[in-house]
Amino acid sequence: MTFTKAQDVINYLYSLPKLHEKADLSYIKKVLTFLDNPQDKVKTVHVTGTNGKGSTSYYLSSLLQKAGQKTGLFVSPYVFEFNERIQLNGQNISDADLVKTANAVESALTKIRKTNNNFSLVTFEYEVVMAFFYFARKKCDYAVIEVGIGGEHDKTNVITPEVSIITTIGLDHEQIIGPTLQDIAREKSGIIKRNRPVVLGNISKEVLPIIQQKAQKEHATIKLLGKDFKISLQENLTYQDQNKKISFLPRPLVEGYDVGIAISAVSLLGVKLSAAEIKEAINQTKIPGRYQIVQNNPLVILDGAHNIQAMQNLLNFAHFEQKKKQGKVKVLIMMMKDKDIEQVFKLFKPEDEVYITTIDYPRAAKKKDFPTWIQEKYQYQADWETSFRSLKQKSQTNDILLVTGSFYLVGNILQMETKNAGSRS
């Protein structure tokens, strides 16, 4: 098969199976071998965590670029377009490069199928192989690689990174890498490699020993948030370690943790950055769909929080802002059927105005997929666009409107808002 258009590549990727019978790395390793192991030709930083791994990856990419490094970035999910998944120096992979890269992968698969006719990759494996091949072909100095799910068995775990990062450990994807928090910690600790340092974010005392034991076994030095570097939030967000203290533009404390992790990680890479350059790189970083303010008065915040920990962080921030603004917190939420719907909805305060919506996507929860008590308590409107417009219109200037629960909903609304802004200009 030969691709000629980017959309053909994307359609093909989504037609592939999602899982193999065996959850191992043998399939992806075989294809990478046929491509001359591109993952070994670029220095990498490997980032996992229940929450914050996307933000940390973006901050780290910005810092490396500021240090003059040619930097690849592999992240998920995307908000505007598929090409966001694979970036070079902050620019999405072009359609032409996407096609060229996919055809290179297809060439390797054709060779493998000469002896193994039924061989295929799952969607995420194919995307990971494309990213590594592209970064090697472009001769990146560094590539920041965000884990898909977990760590040890994740398809990205075919690298020996310069630094490993674990941002947080909470409950998400329990059916795949759980069921307990301890199971999830063990899975995520699988990205720690021998004699390679690891940076740890806001890890609870409950599971920290599991990570520490793995690091000790691999002779990996640890840099821990709260011990080796600190983040504080007074008027501004401030990072401090034994060598420097830097203040940044205000942002939620939980987002500040990701800033701190990224700065701590980049300091281990030996690239040169002044305090002024670090400040500039962080302040200029834009992370799509994460604590993204699209309007003030009323304050409209888009955030793809889709698990208990991320939603609690977002609501803490909203309620903190609410006290200053003396308005109401309104929430437009859409969730996937396989998420902890009931536990997420228990986080809302009685005074929060919560509205449920959905999108046209197979995994998206419809009204019948919500527990009965949620259906009875909260209003459901199937049309997300109508729901959003109506809520925005009804909100007072001192209200806070959160759009959350899924990056798919956030992406749809961002695209709609961008189109509207374009038509007004």
From TrEMBL:
Reactions it catalyzes: (6S)-5,6,7,8-tetrahydrofolyl-(gamma-L-Glu)(n) + L-glutamate + ATP = (6S)-5,6,7,8-tetrahydrofolyl-(gamma-L-Glu)(n+1) + ADP + phosphate + H(+)
Gene3D superfamilies hit by this protein: Mur ligase, C-terminal domain, Mur-like, catalytic domain
Domain Mur ligase C-terminal, first and last residues per copy: 289-407
Domain (Mur ligase central) ranges: 47-249
Matching InterPro entries: Folylpolyglutamate_synth, Folylpolyglutamate_synth_CS, Mur-like_cat_sf, Mur_ligase_C, Mur_ligase_C_dom_sf, Mur_ligase_cen
Record-listed E.C. numbers: 6.3.2.17
Record keywords, A-Z: ATP-binding, Ligase, Magnesium, Metal-binding, Nucleotide-binding
Family: Belongs to the folylpolyglutamate synthase family.
PANTHER family the record matches: DIHYDROFOLATE SYNTHETASE-RELATED, FOLYLPOLYGLUTAMATE SYNTHASE-RELATED
Full protein name: tetrahydrofolate synthase
